[in-house]
């Protein structure tokens, strides 16, 4: 590697600093006060409404503009549990969502397997269509499904609700398990086949167990997508089948705030619990790379 | 593979239906319920579409939707980027907490979130009361306003932005960031000249996804938004359920689709440009 | 905890009393409960090339990053050219680091990578271009200015990173194992280039590495670190020939360790085996110690030639020399022989030691010395003559 001999680069003995090389002081980035204010504001923006909801579910009433309720009560909770319509919607939600999950799993997991571990003709098209269904404005989809559902006599039926909720789960149940399957190193599969395992055995004994975290996360997200689905169910299920989320629309418009607040808290509990349980995987390296776009 | 064909077909059927639907074609069952239907001959007619486009209320709805969409997406982008980049460059307990908190909305069903935000920012809500207590001039009532819709859409869309940007930032080597500091760049400069340029893909995706999400948003504007103008999502559902005009509803739905497709095209064009530049 | 008399903070940028570029005094760093750097004192002179050498986890990288300002020390002073820079952040410290692995900004061209720091300092565009061209020429990458990092090979990327650091005209250049991600041949090429450039430009340089060949070959001075503290500082030959602690003896080069006693007639190993020692004999300790002998200092002669009787246990060809394992009574030793040697397992020879070292006894890590990086190239060469002719050679490494 040539090293040229010439001047200009050789360092002379330093006498004092070289002013042109001193970096101008940029000043502190943001004064501590501002950052504290921003921090508090941001946290407040996100968390406060939720806390307020909780307060409302126990509040008897407010004297505007007081921030504290006049008294604490369990009355709202009692009202909710005593109301058959509301309880029925809880029941519906809790039964329909698992059904949707199972159907989704049956449909999507084999596809996820195919996407994750093989290259087949039309793979890009399939991926694109799955992805676009989700990126698509959900409302347009539902609204345009309505004629079809009418045709098939599915409007206002449970099956129609299942179909609608199913759509929201498709992306989760294909993309995330596909990532999980793809992440299994080829060597493990080869070793199993080397030992004599059939393709199905490989799937059952190697891929499935190793992809279980991804599948679990996907199942949780899919369940929640079905459970919390409001828009499509509203369009299709009403007025015969009103699940919890759809009921919220009704509550918001017609019932006292306390009742709605209680219902809202109830509706949130499964979401929060389930998502907390998969939080590690959701934030972990696996899904991070799933989000990675390159 | 068989399953793929079966369920892969479903979305295609639905998109096909879009085309059929807006031309008022063979949707007899629906049409019977409908009022003010426009029937077409042969392939169909665009009369339904044109009548809608001329409707001034619809025009206002479109504008409102687009404005809300633009503002929400920009706010989400700005706040999500600030949050995640700040944490990447100057991690601290506080920034870590902030990042975690910013993903909390993901855990909350949209219906609940809308309701919570409505009570919080609405008449006699927390914000209103707080403002009155402190003696601020503004009402701070955001229920039934477009501003409220923006607030809520931002609240709901932030988690996705944060997650995506986090992933993008994780892909940058610590050393390249250290090297920028070593060369004398302060954090703002590092963010501007080193970090953000490398995040172009993620930033675009966040913007597009948020925009499309807001475009088709129903629950949030339904609960928090004003009665006039309506966001298109609410308009579509309303047209179907309240006015019993399924065809028109389908047209509105299609309009949303078109707007979303425009954004999608912009994204595709942008990424093609980027890929060409990198070559 | 500061040493009294250490150079104090001097107003302005005048030359310090000692004329040294860098003074570390009592630098310590804790990570949780682990003490990563234990009260380290170090002085580096202007234009000096110092290598901090040690195994992974010894604290050398932490030390380097503290000098660069990326980590704050818990205790001690860092004085560069007379000023305490401990509170000075990375951005304003007059140091520049060349990182391990790749640190170029992938979205900026080579020219913009190098010129980045200059842009920050508000140089004019023409000046930046001139300087960048100058620097690219220095590392033989003329005309590469418009390329993007991913278009360059690993070696080229590191060269760009090197001149990027030099562009800032730092007082101290810090090298954090910059060659470890390169393959062997490239590594050799690059480190020679770095040394040559450093000599020409004259920047004070601190290299951190676990590769002793690098350390011994490039440095004016070697600082051997272990478990957070400095074991020995000295010129490469000194550190090799006169290791002061058992760790240094083990870490640098190969070393045989024997339990034995050093007496006027040589080393007594085992019950009765006495090995004569020629040349240097290091200070005698009391009683039984750990005796260290480098394989190249084990002189092999024909059986009955007057040294201690030994048997050859095994012979391994290592390219241009052979490595033998000798059995001396109850003790096994490594030694070298030239490639042409006809010795085989089972042969009887006699051996004497050319130079021995002595260390306090410690838990035995292995009689045959620690693993060494590099292939000990060259150590066998001088033994050609000794083994075949029985002559003694002047002691010391070549």
- Which regions of chain B are unreliable across 5 or more consecutive residues at pLDDT < 50? 22-29, 31-44
CATH topology of the largest domain in chain C: Rossmann fold
Note the quaternary state here. heterotrimer
End-to-end distance of chain B, in Å? 36 Å
CATH topology of chain B: MetI-like fold
Count of helical stretches of chain B? 14
In terms of DSSP E residues, the strand content of chain C is 25-35%
Give the secondary structure arrangement, pairings included:
The complex is a heterotrimer of chains A (about 290), B (about 280) and C (about 400).
Chain A: H1 32-57, H2 75-82, H3 84-117, H4 123-135, H5 138-151, H6 158-182, H7 186-194, H8 199-227, H9 231-237, H10 244-254, H11 257-277, H12 279-283, H13 285-291
Helix pairs in contact in A: 1-11, 2-11, 3-6, 3-8, 4-6, 5-9, 6-8, 6-9, 7-8, 10-11
Chain B: H1 2-22, H2 28-33, H3 47-54, H4 56-89, H5 93-103, H6 110-121, H7 126-134, H8 146-170, H9 174-182, H10 187-198, H11 200-215, H12 219-224, H13 232-241, H14 246-278
Helix pairs in contact in B: 1-14, 4-5, 4-8, 4-11, 6-8, 8-11, 11-14, 13-14
Chain C: E1 20-31, E2 34-45, E3 49-53, H1 60-68, E4 75-80, E5 83-84, E6 95-98, H2 110-120, H3 125-138, H4 154-167, E7 172-176, H5 184-201, E8 204-209, H6 212-218, E9 221-226, E10 229-234, H7 236-241, H8 246-251, E11 256-263, E12 266-269, E13 273-275, E14 289-293, E15 298-302, E16 308-317, E17 321-328, E18 331-338, E19 348-353, E20 357-359, H9 383-389
Parallel strand pairs in C: 3-8, 3-9, 6-7, 7-8
Antiparallel strand pairs in C: 1-2, 1-4, 4-5, 9-10, 11-12, 11-14, 12-13, 14-20, 15-19, 16-17, 16-19, 17-18
Helix pairs in contact in C: 2-3, 2-4, 3-4
What does this entry look like structurally?
The complex is a heterotrimer of chains A (about 290), B (about 280) and C (about 400). Chain A has about 290 residues and is mostly helical. Chain A has 2 domains: about 25-75, no CATH class; about 75-290, MetI-like (MetI-like fold, Orthogonal Bundle). Chain A has helices spanning about 30-55, 75-80, 85-115, 125-135, 140-150, 160-180, 185-195, 200-225, 230-235, 245-255, 255-275, 280-285, 285-290. The radius of gyration of chain A is 28 Å and the shape is globular. Chain B is mainly α. Chain B has a single domain, classed as Orthogonal Bundle (MetI-like fold), CATH 1.10.3720.10. In chain B, about 75% of the residues lie in helices and about 0% in strands. Chain B has helices at about 1-20, 30-35, 45-55, 55-90, 95-105, 110-120, 125-135, 145-170, 175-180, 185-200, 200-215, 220-225, 230-240, 245-279. Chain B is globular. Residues about 1-15 and about 365-398 of chain C have low confidence and may be disordered. In chain C, β1 and β2 form a beta hairpin. The longest helix of chain C has 18 residues, at about 185-200. Chain C is an alpha+beta fold and about 400 residues long. In chain C, strands 6-7-8-3-9-10 form a 6-stranded mixed β-sheet, sandwiched between helices. Chain C contains 9 helices and 20 strands. The relative contact order of chain C is 0.11. Chain C folds into 2 domains: about 20-240, 3-Layer(aba) Sandwich (Rossmann fold); about 255-390, Nucleic acid-binding proteins (OB fold (Dihydrolipoamide Acetyltransferase, E2P), Beta Barrel). At the A-C interface, loops of A face α3 and α5 of C.
